[in-house]
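CATEGORY: protein folding

GOAL: derive structure tokens
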Amino acid sequence: MQDKHNSNGFYDLYHNPFTGNSEPRGYTYVAGYGFSPPPRADYERRMIRTYSSGIAMMLLCFLLLSGPVYQLILTLETMLFGQIMTYDGYTAAAEIANMGAYVLALLLPAVLYCRRIRIPTYNAFPLSQPRDTRIALAAIPITLMTVVVGAYTASAMSVFFAAFGLYPTSPVSAVPTGVVPFILYFLSSAVLPAIVEELVFRGAIMQSLRRFGDTFALFVSSLLFGLVHGNLVQAPMAFVTGLAIGYFVLRTGSLRTGMAIHFVNNALAVVLSAISASFSINGQQTITSIVYVVYLLSGFIAMGWLLTRYSNMFQLHASNTVMSIRGKLTAFFSTGLMLALLALLAFTTSKYFLVI
């Protein structure tokens, strides 16, 4: 076995060939420049592909394990508590199992991904106070404005597919009316997504990809955020709002900004759905139109306020990488695991089409 002296001597000569250290026993060594490093573009490409595979594995685990984990938790609940509790016909145990599976299947792979690429926790999940609370507050109405943009984008896509006899749909879940069911529904629809999805998409994914440029990291994390929703009704809205949330997380340096925006958006959606349930279809359309007008007006006011006070608002830091955005995207979305993820998402999305 090689002794410590020889190991250290060889290391010194290999990494510092001009230190004048004596040649280690058992080696023939000629001091020189050593091996030339690979071109920087090749290094970036390999790193992007490594990160792509890790992110794809993370999201594949979420999509494939959510169902089994849900069944496991539901079985454990039945074994521990016996008869499943219901409130006004609403199965509380099923909702609790669904929330548990959602958290475990999405958050645990994200933590393992961060450990695998050795990104420090404080970098992957920046939870400090936002650098500028005024920007964080103004970000809320601006992001609500992008909800309208996303909704009309989804409508335009629906019109396009309708020309081919395809009608995009999305999962439909009625807002429960009982107190306990509504609390559980609110937790699963507004509170948990605001925390978990921000930790994963604006945290683990976006923060880890920032080494390849903020623009690249923002676009990729937002695109994946939209695609994971699994249908073309929600995906465009999620993508556009993901861009807005991601930008303000970058701008304020804190995931708290994203969590606050995400929570307000989802909470308003739940409350408005509960209110609209008692109206006719025409009444629901009227409520939606009024809400969209309020979102647009408040968003434009907040955006104008920010632009008058911050000269560099809505600008991202320039990237110091050598690859182009197109090259980075090609490298990221061409790995085997990422292609498998995209294929699974395409299959999931295809189930939410009506063919007429």
